[in-house]
Amino acid sequence: MQVKDFYFELPEELIARYPLEQRSASRLLCLDGNTGERTHRQFTDLLTLLQPGDLLVFNDTRVIPARLFGQKESGGQIEMLVERVTSENTALAHIRASRAPRPGARLLFEGGLEAEVTGRQENLFQLRFTNLDDHLVSALERHGHMPLPPYMKREDQLSDRERYQTVYNRKPGAVAAPTAGLHFDQALLQQLKDKGIEQTFVTLHVGAGTFQPVKVDTIAEHHMHAEYIEVSDEACAAVKAAQARGNKVVAVGTTSVRCLETASRSGEIAPFYGDTDIFIYPGYRFRTVDRLITNFHLPESTLMMLVSAFAGHQSIMQAYADAVAERYRFFSYGDAMFLTRRDAADKDAL
């Protein structure tokens, strides 16, 4: 398949630049990957779509305020976006500047933070922060900006510190939110729990690479950027228990899908700690995930390819056209989808 097969026209005004006042007030487009049937519902209808004993799998990563503005010692303005914190005082980062800083260059950031460029790793810069009083993550929490996706076309606001974050976040490390989880508030989580719907957690620290365009024409030639994940013994046990009961494993977001499917590569889910570069596109055979809650994704993105693998390429493209016609809100602060996995292989990929 070609990258262009995942293109769709999206009116600019449908991009959600701000969240709704209430997290769970979003709309929910439901798509059955086997029949292609689509229904328009509200996000709180998950209470009727899920059954007692089903398992929701959440990504508990926490977004760090990973963007800093500053200047090179020579005076040129720079913008830095951390891709990954690698130790208490080092990081891999994207740097935007008129001229790329060389190894040994000194960078001066907001809050008096200073860093030295120690090398390059492909398109990322290796940085060592030289004047920290505590961990780099703590310094970013004090001085950094929330790394809103570029398509929002606005500066971050104080309110984004809470809203561009799931209510169940607990492990700092992401530089983009696992956005399907943004729709859950504490009240809805409690209602789901009261109904007997199980919950477990995995971790994937989302990198800025999630917004990088696919630069090849044929999708099989694309190489995914690596992201760190954790799938614990506890999460594996919860998945196996749901499967033994005959219940559904419901991934909350594509990041949870990538965690579960990485941990299931041997055929049965097992604990996994480390980097994953799993690339899921039409033709992939899912081993663990039965249902998927996800937001609407960018045209020609790897996330469009993942959901197409899950529910069928033609069905997804038709659903997206429907969402545009029905004026759904798109991307990180937008509305959501509830997908039923297509049982048969996607014929469009064969």
Q: What does the secondary structure layout of this molecule look like, with pairings?
A:
Blueprint: E1 27-32, E2 38-42, H1 46-49, E3 55-59, E4 61-63, E5 67-72, E6 77-85, E7 90-97, E8 106-109, E9 114-121, E10 124-129, H2 136-143, H3 160-163, E11 171-174, H4 186-194, E12 198-204, E13 227-231, H5 233-245, E14 249-252, H6 254-263, E15 272-276, E16 291-295, H7 302-311, H8 313-325, E17 336-340
Parallel strand pairs: 1-17, 3-12, 3-14, 4-11, 14-16
Antiparallel strand pairs: 1-2, 5-6, 5-8, 6-7, 7-10, 8-9, 9-10, 12-13, 13-15, 16-17
Largest sheet: 9 strands, mixed
- Estimate what percentage of residues fall within beta strands: 25-35%
State the end-to-end CA separation: 9 Å
> What is the CA-based Rg, rounded?
20 Å
Order of neighbouring strands in the sheet with most strands? 2-1-17-16-14-3-12-13-15
Individual helix count: 8
Spans of at least 5 consecutive residues whose pLDDT stays below 50 are none
